[in-house]
Amino acid sequence: MRLARMSGVTAQVRERGRERARELAGRGWELLERVSGVRYGLYGLAVLRIGYGLVLLAHLLVNYVDRRVLWGPESPWTPKLLKEDLAGDETFSVFAFSDSGPYFEVVYHLFIVIVVAFVVGWRTRFVTPLLAVMVWSWHEREPWILDGGDNIMQLVLIYACFAQLSGRWSLDARRLARKGWVPAPDSVRWRLVTVLHNSALLACLLQVSILYMNAGLLKVRGEMWQEGTALYYTLQVEEFQPFPWLSRLVYENDLFVTAGTYAAVLVQVAFPLLMLNPISRRLGLVAVTGMHLGIGLFMGLSSFSLIMITSDLLFVRGATYQRAGRVVKAAYRWVRSRRRGGADGGVPVAVRPEQPLVLEKP
């Protein structure tokens, strides 16, 4: 009897073990399907592509007249100093391959062409690595005019080489649509590329989160941030006062200075946690966007602010971008109908999605 009972208990234990194993295998297969079956963040990466590209293009064109002094052979950071610095850091720069003026002009204008191709999404799979190399070389050519936005752009562009940046709002997507191309999600190649894409997206999100949390933790250690006076002293730096009268209105308000100082620390430290919940994610994105708009307005760091806001938009869901697109289309059609004196009396017509919504979580 004892042997029979022990045998029955053993059989039950084995059966429970098999059920547990089947359950774990099912969850593992479900996770694998989610990772390799759907490419997430296509809209956010498209915004990243366009935003980064426009910021770079603005840099190249605004400083076009002074390009030879800033990055060329006439720079105070001479080609000799550049080569010595690159050798010491064991890195490289395309701009250091030759000291001649014509070579610099070719590389600089090629850089502009690559950026334009990146913005419009033309052959992005090949253009993105080229852009990553050019941005790295550009920053290494003149490291003294960098800021935090340039650093995060360098890192994100490396990850972006493995992501599909042209899935939305690009010439590549339009070309594939005209050819009638349909993805083959069951093919091994498509799944491997999808895993790389989702991994690269995750790396970008983690990089931005770590950046914010690290910046917040470093602020916590500062005495002025602990006392709530850091914003007061920062806004009084003359080099960062595009509008002195506006800065004065802020730093003379004790309540605004104290609240702004502590809020900046709190949002940055808590940023990774805020991104885990849909409601807190919206609040966190609104907070950091407002913070960067303030940095751009009160401190004149417009490039840094635009790069960081563009990076933050990776956390916005694809469904949100789709809804925003439908609102823009409805507004555009309404404006056109008003101009043409349409028969609808100027009442906007609801725009139905032309295709089913694709769930895209960051």
TrEMBL record:
Residues 39-320 form the HTTM-like domain. It is found in: Endomembrane system. The chain crosses the membrane at residues 40-62, 106-132, 192-215, 255-276, 283-309. Keywords: Membrane, Transmembrane, Transmembrane helix. It comes from the Bacteria. It is a multi-pass membrane protein. PANTHER family: HTTM DOMAIN-CONTAINING PROTEIN, SPORULATION-DELAYING PROTEIN SDPB. This is Antimicrobial peptide system SdpB family protein. It comes from Nonomuraea angiospora. The lineage of its organism: Bacteria, Bacillati, Actinomycetota, Actinomycetes, Streptosporangiales.
